[in-house]
Amino acid sequence: MNILTRFGWVLILGSGLCLAQTEQAKPAEAKPEQQAAPVEAKAETPEAAAAQPLVPSDEAPVTGAMEVGYRWLGDVGGNFNAYRSVVDLGEGVRVLNLDTRLADPSGKLWDRFTLRGGGWGGDPYNTAHLGVERNRVYRLNLDYRNLVYLNYLPSFANPTIDRGVFVNQRSMDVQRRFSDVQLDLMPGRVLTPYLAFTRDSGFGRGITGFVSDGNEYPVANDLRDQTNHYRGGVRLDWRGWNLTLEQGGTTFKDDQRVFNSAPNQGNRTQPLLGQQLFLRDLLQAYGVRGDSIYSRGLLAASPAAWIDLNAQFLFSQPSSDTNYFEAKSGQFVLLNQLLFYDRGTGTLSSSAKQPHSAAGFNVELRPHARIRIRESWFTDRMRNATRAQLVEQLALTGFTSALTDRLAVNFSQQQTELLVDVTKRLTMWGGHRYLWGDSQVRAPLVQRPNAFESAELRRHSGLAGARFRPWQKWMLNADAEIARGDRTYFRTGLLNYQKVNLRTRYDVTSSLSVSAVAAVMDNENPTPGVQYSFSSHDAGVSVAFLPKGGEKVSLLVDYNRTGIYSDIGFIAPFNGQQERSLYRDNAHTGTVLADVRPWKAGPWITAGGSYFLSSGSRPTRYYQPIGRVALPLGKYAFWVGEWRWYGSSQPFYLFEGFRAHQFTTGLRLTR
Amino acid sequence: MAGPPSATPGTKLPPQGRHRAATRSPAPGGTAAVFLGLIFAVSAALLAQPANSEPANSSSQKQGSSGPAYAGSETCTACHEDISQSFVKSPHARIAGRKGWEERACEACHGPAAAHAESGAAEDVKNPLKLAVKDTDAICMGCHRNEQTAVGRLRAGHFRNEVACTSCHTVHKTQEDLVARAPARQNKQCASCHSQVWAQFQRPHAHRLREGAMKCTDCHNPHGGFLSPSMRTVSANEPNCFRCHGDKRGPFTFEHAAMRMESCAGCHEPHGSANPRMLTRHEVRFQCMECHSNIGTASGTVGGLPPAFHDTRNPRYRNCTICHVKVHGSHVNRALLR
């Protein structure tokens, strides 16, 4: 059954159930004496509920805020491409922020109408959201996002750096657009059908590598892809049983092109066996088409006061078909045959199918007022079976290869926890988790063609935690996990680990609160040859001072200290010597934001910003201070002036540093 | 906690031994037993009691019941005028439209309050903010169980760590206060507890939350999901990363197994990093070589053999992705070169 047919069935089923529900509602209205039925049956009719506008009648028709202004970008010091890769805010007129709510004068069309957005007018991050809702009738949400993804960071491993060429050989300047719409219909209390559509697309240019034996060439890349998601479903709520059934599908296309039309020496500067390798013309054209169907069934219920349960079944089956063409000319070599040639073509057609199913079941039992038992089980199974046919013509020599590939991953988890309310203010819990799984993947080429390797996953974890609230002002939460395993999929995967998280919050006064977090995690894989050791720690404290609810002064301070330590052995591929990969990151991050309004109806002054300082493998300093003034121009208008500074430097990568001032002035309208 | 004897770290069993160890493991059998027990428990619950989905306070609300008496919202307003004024703007004001709750909207959550109205004592009325978390949640779930987002609730980190609904949702105020949907507002709310995560977003290479172009719930479902840590999914069961990065979704003719088995977070730090492209290592070669090293093959892991014998002292080979451009998976080349 294809996607459209399944989608059609969901629509038909949803419509039928809607109609049935409408029919069922009538007797309920006609027989008020049946009110001993559960609350769903006793509930108000949709019409009665819809007649209650949520927006009070005295509210202004439009409320919210809008900020429009002009941004100047001072001279960017340092590497402009790095600035664009990290910040990328330019100058010009901008709708900086929009957050409005519209009231419906008739009280019949909507209860909630929200329009939000920001970054319009040329910023690299434009967003828009429209939310409209009518109580018990419908809910409509639309989202749009347009993000520029620019990455022109110079690379540490830049093969052309000795020639003064700093451009990374993998760079991109693409836009990713995302739009999403969902409509929920509420014809009654039992049934909620919904329909949704999502589109994700990307397009732009970049630089990528074209690899041929003995040399690789930075070449232009034209990226273009699009994914559409269609889904529809129905939610049923009946006597404490809640069921969601959803059917969806996706279509996907990727029409990437890679090209070159001028002599390109590549990264090899020395001749190979007396021949200078180079690329003159290149065209690689990818034509990937994919689709998928997917189904979801979700269940949540409380059949009795002492039990909660939920279950889910998720299935998808994405597939893709590829038609690839390549034509090149220049001077190339086929190293395994020591064959030099000046032109070649290649075509490949391939297909992949990846059925993927997951299911889970969770239950909470409350056999006693102070005792809860939680049990959960989950499994995820995925297969990918593929085949491809490659036809290559290198000068006068032709090759045909039939290729296959396979990936299989099974993963399961079972967990049991016991929670005890020791006192009214102290809850403690403990439990056990078991993970197991197996996988089969393609082996590296050096073994033999079409070879596969497999790995298993097996790990037991002990769980413990507590929540302590000795009095209303103080809360402490702690949880810990200790795991021991004997199988893991990857050398860097979790095996023998322990982690502890602590959180506390203390409300010193009604206007001052302090919270702190701390987390520690260690992971070890002592297997000879791996000897992996990883540890991370994280500690932070936050202070919020808002006297009189922040009417005149507010102060928010955050400080965080993070450390990462990783050490693992590996063999250098060129000489077989054992080396160690060490990674260190010791970071301090702070954020301060102070708001002051010295007198009533006076200006708001905001000052603060954030900093990030780290040492270790990639020492970094990144500052983002901010100063802002909002001067009232009337009851509903403010003049806003803002200054921001971005400063980034990395001592080992000085060529990536940048500094930039930004000034923004504009109007903020509120109501 | 120590593992079973067969799970001693570093123990290398021959393949057959491994298989035996796996089949002897007590947990799957235990799972089956627990599962059967649960099925019996659920069946017993269903048979023993009629279905009950009424709001938390509805049992004493039924007409003619002899439970505690109700005061009515008007009585509440007399003392709590500020809350009452704010409450009419809240979506929860809808409760007053439900049969049996007219003029009693406050008591739908706070319980019968006639005694409190008479005595003025805080102990005589339920305050969900001061109740045990499970009791607070029970009040909310009385009406909100049928939220699609709540299906993974029992697996959620918030639920497991006893974080009450009212920790994030301000019940008496407007829709915007009840559910923080505007990105800046929502991010601020999440950061008020997860300050260490927000600190990561202050690093140079991060998803665009600081700029207000994204929010925490774009990736996470705070009510829980089947993926950890409360990750959203797309296309039923795929990680939500593919919702925006559809070009990385595949299925590829030649997969990079780590993408499917360790997820994107195997190589990327999505909350922010000092390393370009949010990588977890400062140089790409270390990112790759930590897994692709032949000394790991004895440990039974995958990807252990080195992909080639390049001289990584030469800058040409220090950034593996200059050549292995399709590192997320390739439709064309087995070595992920095109």
% residues in beta strands of chain A: over 45%
Helix content of chain B: 25-40%
Outline type of chain A: globular
Mean pLDDT of chain A: 86
Summarize the largest interface: chains and residue counts. A-B, 230 and 164 residues
Catalogue the unreliable spans of chain A: 1-57
Helix-strand sequence of chain B:
HHHHHHHHHHHEEHEHHE
Record the strand order, biggest sheet of chain B: 1-2
Tell me the β content of chain B.
under 5%
Put simply, the count of helices of chain A is 4
Key features?
heterodimer, A: 671 residues, mainly beta, 30-stranded antiparallel sheet, 4 helices, B: 338 residues, mainly alpha, two-stranded antiparallel ribbon, 14 helices, disordered N terminus
Q: How would you explain this protein's 3D organization?
A:
Chain A has 671 residues and is mainly beta. Helices cover 7% and strands 66% of the residues of chain A. In chain A, a hairpin with a 6-residue loop joins strand 23 and strand 24 (532-545). Chain A is globular. Chain B has 338 residues and is mainly α. Among the domains of chain B are: 70-127, no CATH class; 145-233, no CATH class; 250-338, no CATH class. Chain B has 14 helices and 4 strands. In chain B, helix 3 crosses helix 4. Residues 1-36 and 38-65 of chain B have low confidence and may be disordered. Classes of the chains: A mainly beta (671), B mainly alpha (338). The interface between A and B is large, with 230 and 164 residues.
